[in-house]
Amino acid sequence: MRTWIKDPIAVLADGAERGIVVENGKIVELVAKGKEPLGHVDEKYDASRHVVIPGLINTHHHMYQTLTRAHPSAINKELFPWLEALFPIWARHVNPDNLRLATRLALTELMLSGCTTASDHQYLFPPGTESAMDIQAEEAGNVGMRMVLNRGALNLTTAEGGNAFPGAVQDTDVILADCERVIGRYHDPKEGAMLQVALAPCAPFNVTKRLMVESAKLAAKHNCRLHTHLAETRDEIDYCEAKFQCRPVDYLEEVGWMNDRVWLAHGIHFNDDEIKRLGRHGVGVCHCPTSNMVLASGQCRTRELEAAGSPVGLGVDGSASNDNSNLMESVRHALMINRLTYDATVTHLDAFRWATEGSAACLGRKDLGRIAVGAQADMGFYSLDELRFSGAGDPIAALVLCGAYKADRVMIAGKWTVVDGNPVGIDVARLRAQHGEAAKAFLSGL
Question: Model's pTM, two decimal places?
Fold first, then answer.
């Protein structure tokens, strides 16, 4: 099937194209305004109500955390006290059934915002949740989203000098064996892949050095990516200096993680020399503006990282520190906080770049993040019909400056997954009711 997406209001692409031809899940032609496609088309879609952008790519999330949004025990706290409040609750209550609902809800919420690829850092494995990666893979297929399954881990408890709650950790050998299993079953390295796998020990303060080293070896063996939290707070800097007698970036290099297979979440508290080192090795960084503001963690030095050579992507982060899974909202937040950090020369196009091409680079996906011939047909379609857009002159800028938050249509791999603002094949009211009921257990105390 060859489909002509005809006459959109505007397209976020390198040229001035106003039409897109899609075939077999890929973009095969861009059509200039007033022109016809070069080849035969089987169907036309009238996009004259829509602004079209590349599908947004979320490079850091914790989907299980949708079950503890705005939790009374954790609001108005910084990261370490926030974790101390929530770890026992998560360890006690997360199970396969509510993890499934949390994943389905987060994927749906992301997709409705215009996100087409999601990377979830699933590091929590209480007893009984050994099938977490299988659950997430199945839910991604059901929703129709591309997904990077981050086989995360915790194995360093509070009693051992870390901050993981004992009920949420696994044995190192068990973790490594399951990493091999998950890679073998789900990691697709080919162009157009719907599922890939990354290995993702949670953070230096809750996993062992051995797990970091062995994960790097496995990733090299299977040519998959590596992900972890790093330099999110000053507390983490202090922890690494006390425990390892070095800063987090030094530790990263010591455990074999200083290479372009790695992308990091947050990356806030790097000094100038560390930024140069990360850039020299092509280590990516996921900027999480909303979560970082909520937890008062600080601001990622996006400009310096990009200038040094590090890909910079965008993430919503956990839905108990962001409290939603709307990546378009995070695009707007990224613009605003970076203008405060730098100046008004940070533009909406910078924010879009982080959420598309930059995120794709973090995930090692050259086939995503662009509207260009040969790229995967992943796109978000936004109408400008709401009152918030009335009077807007630049339609691309309006999506960010006027606060777009919901796509009218979404296409993933050439298939419509959102139509008229509704996810295809998903009963949103039923999902909301089921998820809300499951979340009540997380409010009932320990």
Answer: 0.98
